[in-house]
Amino acid sequence: MEQSGTSTxxxxxxxxxxxxxxxxxxxxxxxxxAAGVTEADGPEAADGLALAAVRVVGxxxxxxxxxxxxxxxxxxxxxxxxxxxxYPPPANASPTxxxxxxxxxxxxxxxxxxFDGMPGHDTEPQAAWLVDAPWQSLTHxxxxxxxxxxxxxxxxxxxxxxxxxxxxxxxxxxxxRRRDWLQAAGAGRWLVLLDDVPETLGLEAGLEFVAQMGRDxxxxxxxxxxxxxxxxxxxxxxxxx
Length: 241
Description:
Layout: H1 2-27, H2 33-37, H3 48-57, H4 63-68, H5 74-86, H6 95-111, H7 128-131, H8 135-144, H9 156-162, H10 165-177, H11 181-191, H12 203-213, H13 218-231
Helix pairs in contact: 1-3, 1-13, 3-5, 5-6, 8-10, 8-11, 10-11, 11-12, 11-13, 12-13
């Protein structure tokens, strides 16, 4: 029962953080990560639940800074860094968990070069498990790793996606037909960055449809807002995440 209560509170914290990120992307205003997860005593006061929520959201916890080129406040960096260090992937972690953590460390380094030298930040995980994945599994995994889908985000996962635009498009259509709005939104975020996406897909209309159907889920809204900003031409200047 206690574990169930903790899971419920974590889900609520993730939803709250995601909603704030969506609001920041839509408004173009500055996003303060620390303001949402700490008390007046500063970033060191962030509790484990708040840091866990940042870890679940992953690199997207810094997405407004990344996409809009706005430097994060020191307190925000401190909270993000604490989440990275508090929840390293265990030895038996899934590939998506390892990649998610790597994306956070690379984002942290991109936002503040003083973090250069963090253990493991320069060791890119392998992606052999994804190269020959069936298109259905590929789309599922890419949707889970949507925080890696950012302009100039060169990494092994992004290179796999760039080599299979038709498969990702097929996965997007399948997710829409299955009414899996979160997977569709994540796949759509990748598609806006890929070349040779079939014009018959109607990606822009598809993204709008997913946004409408998944409007009650802030996780869907976050992926759609990111996709639409990138499709509109928002670019990251020299950031490799």
